[in-house]
Design brief:
The protein has 320 residues and is α/β, with parallel strands linked by helices. The protein has two domains: 48 residues; 251 residues, 2-enoyl-CoA Hydratase, Chain A, domain 1. 48% of the residues lie in helices and 16% in strands. Strands 1, 2, 3, 4, 5, 6, 7 and 8 form an eight-stranded mixed β-sheet that branches. Strand 2 and strand 3 form a beta hairpin. Helix 1 runs antiparallel to helix 2, helix 6 runs parallel beside helix 8 and helix 10 crosses helix 11. The protein starts with 10 loop residues before the first helix and ends in an 8-residue tail after the last helix.
Length: 320
């Protein structure tokens, strides 16, 4: 599958795919010469994708994670969850469209599904606030996690946010308290809890729904305490040094698996999830199913204890 949007470092791929489109418009597939040339160019595209994606820098991975064609939360819900019923509101202020959740069935198993939605197109991104949740979004997440625990339903979360909404109105409504309560709830619930980082995992806005028993991460996703731009602005007072910050932050899936911050990397299609969303979603679905199967052997008390110990042990000297 071809993407409609190419990143800066994908220029050679864009040129090859442009030639393929031109040739296909020239004549039909019955022309053996044209068909042969198209096949040759497609092989070159495949080779170029391998050359580029096998050695992505952290900054390039950040760009892939932010790709506008990358599947979002509602795409994963559509592809993986049957009978999805969204549940709205925090029962205190309102409903936040940047953080969506509800009940559904994952391969026959009832689950509570919660995730950040960035939106598609200009209107959609504005409607969903680019995936940056307000306090009411995190309070809704707490409500849904507690509901899942009450009915003994596993929780699946999908993380894809640059961070929580940074506006004054969010602070006025208790942003930091809402994030803290959400993390606390993640750690307390006594049901299987699987986290999937599918795009950007930014700051506390991501962590608020990411303190699960197992954290899965798509191959070209990123997960960090701050965005590279924000980090560069603080350290060097120059957002243009975001590339340097991305290197220093160790935000790639490969780095984080080595530090045991995440538990598993889920391979993406060649060229990223945006080039073949169906394969990406199927691979992630298989990984979630395997992880849930392993967690089903634990008692409610063991689930909560495993999750607590997992996060308390991070960064402790000598803990593997």
């Amino acid at each position: 599958m071809e993407s409609n949007t190419f990143l800066d470092f994908e220029k050679p791929i864009a040129e090859l795919e442009g030639k393929i489109k031109e040739l296909r418009h020239l004549t039909d597939d019955s022309d053996d010469n044209i068909a042969s040339e198209v096949t040759r160019l497609e092989a070159k595209v495949d080779t170029a994708l391998h050359q580029v994606y096998d050695k992505l820098t952290p900054w390039q991975k950040m760009q892939v994670a932010r790709h506008p064609d990358r599947p979002h939360f509602l795409d994963y819900v559509s592809g993986l969850i049957d009978e999805f019923t969204p549940l709205h509101g925090d029962r205190a202020f309102g409903d936040d469209k940047a953080l969506i959740g509800g009940l559904g069935r994952f391969r026959g198993t009832p689950v509570m599904v919660i995730g950040h939605e960035k939106g598609t197109g200009t209107a959609g991104r504005v409607e969903h606030n680019f995936g940056m949740a307000h306090p009411e979004g995190y309070r809704k997440a707490v409500r849904l996690m507690e509901l899942a625990a009450r009915f003994n339903v596993p929780i699946l979360t999908f993380v894809d946010t640059p961070g929580a909404h940074p506006g004054v109105e969010a602070e006025e409504r208790g942003q930091s308290e809402a994030i803290a309560r959400s993390i606390e709830c993640c750690l307390k619930v006594k049901v299987p809890f699987v986290v999937s980082i599918v795009g950007e995992g930014g700051s506390g806005g991501a962590m608020a729904i990411a303190a699960g028993n197992k954290v899965l991460m798509l191959e070209h996703s990123v997960y960090s305490v701050i965005s590279p731009e924000g980090c560069a602005s603080i350290l060097w007072r120059d957002a243009a040094r975001a590339r340097d910050a991305a290197e220093a932050l160790k935000l790639t899936a490969q780095d984080l698996l080595g530090y045991k911050v995440i538990d598993r990397i889920v391979e993406e299609p060649l060229g990223g999830a945006h080039r073949d969303p169906e394969i990406a979603m199927s691979s992630l679905g298989d990984a979630i199913a395997e992880t849930l199967k392993d967690l089903n052997d634990l008692t409610p008390q063991q689930l909560a204890a495993q999750r607590r110990d997992k996060f308390l042990d991070m960064g402790r000297p000598g803990v593997q």
